[in-house]
Each structure stands twice: as structure tokens, then as C-alpha cells.
Amino acid sequence: MSEASGVLVIMEQTSAGWHRISREALAAGKRLAAELNISCSAAVLGSAEVLAPLTTELANEDLSSVWSVEDPFLARYTADAFVASLQQILAQANPAYVLFPHTYQVRDYAPALATRLGEVLLSDVTAFNVSGGTSSFTRQWMGGKLNAEYRHSGPGVCLLSVQAGSFRAETSASSSAPCEIKRLTPQLSAANIRTAPSEPFREAARTVDLSSAQVIVSVGRGIGEQENLALVEDLARVLGAELAASRPICDAGWLPMERQVGSSGQTVAPKVYVAVGISGAIQHLVGMKGARTVIAINKDPDAPIFEVADVGAVGDLFEIVPALTRALQR
Amino acid sequence: MKIVVAVKQVPERDAAVRVAADGRSVDTGDAWTMNEPDAYALEEALQLKERDGGEVIVLSAGPERVESTLREALAKGADRALHIVTPESGAGSLPERDTLGVAQLLADAVRSESPDLVFTGLQSDDLGAGQTGVVLAELLGLPHATLVLSVESAADSGGKRIRVKRELEDGWFQHIEMPLPALLTIQSGGNRLRYATLMGIKRARAKETRAIEAAPPAERHDKTAEIVRISLPERTRQIEMLTGPADQIAAKLAERLRTEVGL
């Protein structure tokens, strides 16, 4: 077998086209390949009908090849079918690097694929650095308090998943001639697919649309107790703002899940986002980075929320928030 | 149903973390707690046991301090505990093993119990890789589901299959059925965490904790994912930092908000 080479980006689609992070992963993969001076290709898995327009589009993306991995078993995602298929793609394409978008689906199968290959997935990568032909990859620790830089070693493939919002997706396809689309039908059998997934469903319709809110007051773990929510409710009222929260507040049942901002909640882009007692884990930041002005109130001067804030108030929210509400009422 | 819940002990959320002198590890002080997503996994296991009967065994790897987290789980209602003992630092310690290495330790301990279900939280609050559960499933040869919010017995399966509700993105959900034994990573927020009662704490003293000596790291490690450097993130945005008395901060914030919001 020839030596592994090139970058392979595994694209993910939804029923409405590319998953948002796919295009970011593609941009990251192309940049990594350019800096390492190696080729970049992409693969997408699904049923043949769904893949036709997607692979045609990919073929115009200035890639060395596009893999169309087609099978009826891939129409509805299962970890077993995806791991088995990807193992077969990797055996054929033999890439040195594989980039995944860090989606819920990737979180479900990529660690198993890595294990089967005797590798460890570097998940949630936010940046990479290439120097002297070697590359290192940054991911966050402790909810964003620290950056950890990793290097892959050993002869095996380097598997990476790319965090949402960390790499800018390219908007336009290149003008070069389309690349080759390679079709691969993986060997899959029903007996090896152990899970039976249902059709996805929604529960009650969302009654709160935070995405159109102009002003949002958002509350995090720093609020301490459910009874203290009145403080931020009062502030939201005088500002005419929607109330939102980070995941732990909704997990605890203090606010409904539909008021959650972040990777598992809503993505917002208000004029003003006031973050109260939110430390700023990356899962939260990806949901609110699009705000025009971010005002953060936190007792910890090193809280990661201050990395994306325009105004940072360091202090006790139980003093600052009521004082702010009073000042705005005057 | 026999359920093993793998939990991790992590630094307290408010712990001051510092980059250690070697630039490749972290000083976290000595305030430790149960990883919160794992607490949700434990809660789900306890509720299943209370509903359908069975046994909940809590499992953790780490140095002696991990015993406090295991005791907490026993006080909340776990029946017994398994402690894979590793050194605090140096050869064989958790920081010296990568995700696959740690999962191999857990897999050996789980095999000795032959449970119907294995639970973990979906990710850890410290390293946040979100992989240990899925890697463990692969090592054990078990089917798995991630981001699970609730678990029930599948209809007409005679207790041989389960049906779980799993969180997808953008407010979507999905049911998945699978045969037992299986591994589930539990999403936080699917249940309400309980507190240990005084009676629970008292009872926990009589419960068994079995210590297991950790196997030395396998030959393959040579870790494939090596940490080069730990650093503090840099601020990329120009920020106006306000400190001082709350009233002064509030006055400045109010001024800024009036302009921005147009009050």
C-alpha cells in the first residue's frame, strides 16, 4: 500500500442541504492541505438520490477528488453503518488527515471509528498550526479557561473534528474544472447494524424565537439559585429584552429549554447581549458570537466570556445587576 | 437490570487553574467534584433501578481522592463501587493515558461485572473530549447511543431490548431501539439531580468499594495524541474592563446600554 497522504474532509448534510459546520470543516481542510502542501478531497455518505446534487456541488470546490459513498443503509444514520463505511473509505482513500465537522452525529460515531483504527480522535479543534511540515491542533480545556495544543504521532491516520464557528466557511466555489467523483458502495449488512433509529421528531413547537431578538439578557450558573432569577428578569424588563440562559440553567429546569443559547440551543445575533454569570464555555459562545455588542458581568476576571465581550464588568452580579436595573429605571 | 455508571472526578468549577511549570499540564488545586454530566448519568441509573429493580455499580478511575466521588454516588443510592487505582501523576496516571488508554482501564473493570447497561455522562467538564463512552462501547463490543435523555424497556422485548430518547440538534429528538447489553452516554437535563440524604450518607459507609489495580499502559502507547503545550487563551477583541464599586460599574453599564439599546 502506498503511503498515506492528503486531507479528507467528511461532509455532513441535513434534509435542507449541508450541515452548517460542514462548510467550515471543508474550509479548514483545504487550508490545512494548502499549508502542508498536500491534496484535499471530501467524502459524503448517504443514499444515492440525496448525494447526487451534493457531490456535484463538491466537485466544483477545487478538490482533488470527491467520494460519493452510497448505500440505502446510510439513508438514516446509524453509528454501525457509518463506522463500517468510513473504515472502508479510509482504506481506499488512505488519507493522512481526516477532518470531521464537530456535529452531534460525528460525536456519536467518530470516537468508535478512531478506536477501531487504534487512534484517538482530536475532538472540537478550534485552531491548527503548521510549521516545518508538522502540524499541531488546539482544543479547549476546562470550559475554555485553557487552550491545549496536541500533536498526533505514530504512523496512523490523524483524525480531527472541527468546532463550530472556529473556521470561516468559504462562500464561492472555484472556477476550475470539476474534479472526479468516485463512487463507493460500502459492504454493509443489516445483521451488523445493531441500533434501530426512529424518524426524528420535535416536541412542542418553539414559542420563543430568540434569533430575532434585538436585546437579550442571558443568565448562567453564576445566578446560584432559581429564586435569584428575578434579578435578571427585572433587568430584562427594563431593557425590553428577551430572557435567555446557558445550558445548565435549563438543565436544572429553572428556565425552559427553548430559552437556551448555545450549540444545543438557539443561535442568536442581537444588537446587545448581556451575559450575567455566564463563564463562556465554547458551547455557549458558538450560539452568541454573532451579537453586535456583548456585555458580560462575571466575578471571575479570567472567565472565557470576556474573550468575546466588548464590555466586561468584574464583580458580584448580586450587587451589579440590581444597581444596573435601578440606574436604567431612573 | 444491572447498570455500571462510569463517573469521573474533575476539578471544582470555580477552581483556579494554572498552567504547570512544565507547560504541558495543569495545576488545579485540591477541590474536586463529580463531573456534572456523570451525575446526570448516575441519576438516570438510580431512577431506572427504582422503577424496574436491579443494581447500580459506580465506577471511577483515579488516585485515592476519587473515593470521595464514589462515596457521594453511594450516598445517593448506588449499591457498590469499583475504584481503578492510578497514581496521581507520572507513569500510569490518568494524564499520562489518552482517551483510549483510560477507556481500556474502564473496559477491563466493566467486563468483570457483565452488566446489562453501561452509562457515562456525555462529556467531562475538564477535558471535554466527549469520547470516553463511545470508545468504551467499541472496546466492549456493545451497541451505543449518545446524548440520551431517557431510557425505557422496549415494548414486547421481554426486557431484552431498550428504547431511548436521544437529543438531536436544533430542538429535534429521536428514539433508538437496541439490544442489551448496551452503552449509553447521558445528556444533562433529562432528569433532576437528587441530593444525598443524611440517611444515604450513613448507609454509604456500609457499602462495598472494591479497589482494582490499574493495568500498566498498553504497549501501543506511545500515545497517538500527545499534548505539546497548555496556554491561557488570548483575547482577540478589544474589551473595556470595568472594576470597582458595584454602583459605579452599574452607572457605566447603564450609560452604555442606553446608547446601544436606544432607551
How is the topology of this model organized?
The complex is a heterodimer of chains A (330) and B (263).
Chain A: E1 7-11, E2 13-14, E3 17-18, H1 20-36, E4 40-46, H2 48-59, E5 65-70, H3 79-93, E6 97-101, H4 104-116, E7 122-125, E8 127-131, E9 134-141, E10 146-152, E11 158-162, E12 180-184, E13 196-197, E14 201-202, E15 215-219, H5 229-239, E16 242-245, H6 247-251, E17 272-276, H7 282-288, E18 293-298, E19 311-314, H8 317-329
Parallel strand pairs in A: 1-4, 1-6, 4-5, 5-12, 6-11, 7-11, 15-16, 15-17, 17-18, 18-19
Antiparallel strand pairs in A: 2-3, 8-9, 9-10
Helix pairs in contact in A: 3-4, 5-8
Chain B: E1 2-6, E2 9-11, E3 18-19, E4 26-27, E5 32-34, H1 36-52, E6 55-62, H2 66-76, E7 80-85, H3 99-111, E8 117-121, H4 132-140, E9 144-153, E10 161-167, E11 172-179, E12 182-186, H5 198-204, E13 209-213, E14 225-231, E15 240-242, H6 246-262
Parallel strand pairs in B: 1-6, 1-8, 6-7, 7-13, 8-12, 9-12
Antiparallel strand pairs in B: 2-5, 3-4, 9-10, 10-11
Helix pairs in contact in B: 2-5, 3-4
Detailed description of the structure:
The complex is a heterodimer of chains A (330) and B (263). Chain A has helices at residues 20-36, 48-59, 79-93, 104-116, 229-239, 247-251, 282-288, 317-329; strands spanning 7-11, 13-14, 17-18, 40-46, 65-70, 97-101, 122-125, 127-131, 134-141, 146-152, 158-162, 180-184, 196-197, 201-202, 215-219, 242-245, 272-276, 293-298, 311-314. Chain A is built from 8 helices and 19 strands. Chain A is α/β, with parallel strands linked by helices. A 7-stranded parallel sheet of chain A has the order 7-11-6-1-4-5-12, with helices on both faces. A 5-stranded parallel sheet of chain A has the order 16-15-17-18-19. A 3-stranded antiparallel sheet of chain A has the order 8-9-10, with helices on one face. Chain A has 2 domains: 7-192, HUPs (Rossmann fold, 3-Layer(aba) Sandwich); 210-329, Rossmann fold. The model of chain A has no long low-confidence stretch (mean pLDDT 94). In chain A, helix 2 (48-59) links the parallel strand 4 and strand 5. By secondary structure, chain B is of the alpha/beta class. Chain B has a single domain (2-235), classed as HUPs (Rossmann fold, 3-Layer(aba) Sandwich). Chain B is 28% helix and 30% strand. Chain B has helices at residues 36-52, 66-76, 99-111, 132-140, 198-204, 246-262; strands at residues 2-6, 9-11, 18-19, 26-27, 32-34, 55-62, 80-85, 117-121, 144-153, 161-167, 172-179, 182-186, 209-213, 225-231, 240-242. In chain B, the strands form 3 sheets. Chain B has a 9-stranded mixed sheet with strand order 11-10-9-12-8-1-6-7-13, with helices on both faces. In chain B, helix 2 (66-76) crosses helix 5 (198-204) and helix 3 packs across helix 4 (132-140). At the A-B interface, helix 4, strand 7, strand 9, strand 10 and strand 13 of A face helix 3, helix 4, strand 9, strand 11 and strand 14 of B.
